[in-house]
Amino acid sequence: MSVFPIINLRPAVTEFLQSVFLNTEVLAAVGHQEAECRFQKLLSCLSHPPSYTCVRASTHLNSLKVVVNNCLCMPGYVVSPESKLSVPSHSLRAPDEADVEVCDLPFSCVLRPVKQLSSEVVVGAQCGSAVLRGAHVFAPGIIASPKYMKAGDVVSVFSDLEGKCTRGATSFQGKKAFVGNGVAQMDRSAIFCADEPAKGIGVRMVEPLYQSPSFDGVLPGLAFLQNLPSVVVGHVLGPRPGERILDMCAAPGGKTCHIAALMEDQGEVVALERIRNKIDRIRQNAQMLRLRSIKVYCFNSTQAVSSDPVQESEGPPFPPESFDRVLLDAPCSGLGQRPNMGSTWSLKEIRSYTPLQRKLFHAAVRLLKRGGVLVYSTCTVTLAENEELVAWALNTFPCLTLQPQEPHIGAEGMLGAGLSPEQLRLLQRFSPELSWDQTGTAAPLSCRANRDTIGFFIAKFLKN
Ligand SMILES: C[S@@+](CC[C@H](N)C(=O)[O-])C[C@H]1O[C@@H](n2cnc3c(N)ncnc32)[C@H](O)[C@@H]1O
């Protein structure tokens, strides 16, 4: 059900995305009306959160049964019998095929009726999207509040969709979306008139419009909050115990930890991340999940290939052909992320990722051993960062061939990059717009949870 207006993007970005979704190959295949309909659905579904919350069971520490039972007993969350039933069908197999390795418990993100109040706090679109994912409002996200707001006041929170509200305003009549009610934790003066910028929770959400289960700090060591396509990436990479794996863009380390867990913590997972203050998060996650095979380095992965082909060192740069498998979960324009009520990014910023992705890809291919597997993934929906990158890679590196993916629960690749039907079938694109607004569908919950995801893309290559 649509509650919010479509995602608010700059006109040039909307036009660009429209040209992607209505490209000549798509038009020839499905016609103008269907292509336009899919594009409009994309814009709608991006501003809404997925209806299901996915957690990955930490089966290297506990049996799946223990994890599932603990999850189902989480206080405050009622998991319907239907969800319980969906666990086996929603599961993926371990490399040895003996047991279920990971399960996704589709905790629903429930839309509920919440009455709007006369006291309004306005927050930025990014902050509004975080509230829809279960966060409180942090003080820096507040743009406007009632003139006499005091700590303890009950207020309605609105997201400023176009970034037009003036900081410090006492009211706002522009385009805004209601995201729920909360209790102010500080006076207005502490937010806008203090010497130091305000920190901490500004509004504690008590009645969010979407109630989503919070797994932050809950069930550590048992369940790891990770969206479904990201869980699929680890399995598609298919790491085995004893291998040496490179995760080129690792923070916050969700996929790094999954890879190490799939390897039963035997072997080596090298995690590189360019931004220093994100490194601790990878280490914390590895520690929480008791994974010792992960080695974390702050490093620019475009420079991760050593110019000295024989020099062996523990950390980067590495000699060519150092790794059995490489994951390139690339920095991207992030246009598949949900919920996203609005973005002020320019078209130039959106387009700036492709050159970086190609540079990283060059390094990935060089660092991979012959016979090794390279998985490329993004959380965006553009052709340039997905199917066109694949077409470029196949032209640039004749040693690479596309491989089938297991599991393959998303759609195939999108038309428009000149790839053949066989090549498109080997790609995996999670396209929530294809099933958006199919309310009242009779499909089992596990199928709906598989489709109602963020927008995501996965390609798997073998280096011959
Ligand atoms: C999509 S996120 C990775 C998410 C991560 N794989 C996970 O599952 O938790 C991309 C990451 O790549 C990092 N990054 C961007 N450019 C990089 C580079 N040149 N070298 C290494 N890391 C880079 C970003 O800082 C960001 O943390």
From TrEMBL:
GO terms for molecular function: RNA binding; RNA methyltransferase activity. The keyword S-adenosyl-L-methionine applies. InterPro entries: MeTrfase_RsmB-F_NOP2_cat, MeTrfase_RsmB-F_NOP2_dom, PUA, PUA-like_sf, PUA_sf, RCMT, RsmB/NOL1/NOP2-like_CS, SAM-dependent_MTases_sf. Gene3D superfamilies: PUA domain (2.30.130.10), Vaccinia Virus protein VP39 (3.40.50.150). The active site is at C379 (nucleophile). Residues 148-464 form the SAM-dependent MTase RsmB/NOP-type domain. It comes from the Eukaryota. SUPFAM superfamilies: PUA domain-like (SSF88697), S-adenosyl-L-methionine-dependent methyltransferases (SSF53335). SMART domains: PUA (SM00359). It holds the Pfam family Methyltr_RsmB-F. One of its GO terms (biological process) is RNA methylation. Keywords: Methyltransferase, RNA-binding, S-adenosyl-L-methionine, Transferase. Belongs to the class I-like SAM-binding methyltransferase superfamily. RsmB/NOP family. This is NOP2/Sun RNA methyltransferase 6. The gene is NSUN6.
